[in-house]
């Protein structure tokens, strides 16, 4: 039994040694391949370095479009700003032109209104002149008619006084007495005043008596009030031996 165990042990040891030898041989024979593998990474590294250099060389070509786009973008932005400025200038110019047109239209409107006002004032002035002229003509015609009417009433008073005046024996040529009669619209005498004396009391007294006898002058009641106020509120009458004058 012991011999069998020893033989088995020897066989195992021999097998292990043999395997070790084989492994060692394999390791020895694999050494060149291991050196190639060691070189391979260097080659890859060199390849990587070369590739990186190429990439660096290519970078400008890849970066240039981006730079061009940025420059183009800036250029477009400048153009946009320039267009905005031009548009703003056009807008301001348009607003200015519109304002100038409005101002011109306003000035023209004011000028038209001023002209119309002047024409209207001139028309009113002419109308006023015509109206004034017409009033003056009417007033003149009325005054003339009033004088004619007043003269007719004065003739009535003159005739009435002449009828009631008795010349005194002392009356002489050249004597004259002027009296002022104060009348009311009914034709009644409310006062007599000797404005000028003849120098003869009998002559002056005869004049006063003739006036009181002739009153009232009822014809004055049909007279227009304005005529009475203008001509007959007070009436002066001159008496002389030759004639009786108003």
Global morphology: rod-shaped
- Sheet having the most strands: 4 strands, antiparallel
Mean pLDDT over the residues:
81
DSSP helix fraction: over 70%
Number of domains: 1
Stretches where pLDDT is under 50 for at least 5 consecutive residues are: 43-51
Keywords, please?
4-stranded antiparallel sheet; Fusion Protein Consisting Of Minor Coat Protein, Glycine Rich Linker, Tola, And A His Tag, Chain: A, Domain 2; single chain; 4 strands; 246 residues; alpha+beta
Structural account:
The protein has 246 residues and is α+β, with helices and mostly antiparallel strands. The chain has one domain (71-246): Fusion Protein Consisting Of Minor Coat Protein, Glycine Rich Linker, Tola, And A His Tag, Chain: A, Domain 2 (2-Layer Sandwich). The chain has helices spanning 2-164, 201-214, 225-232, and strands at residues 177-183, 189-196, 234-239, 244-245.
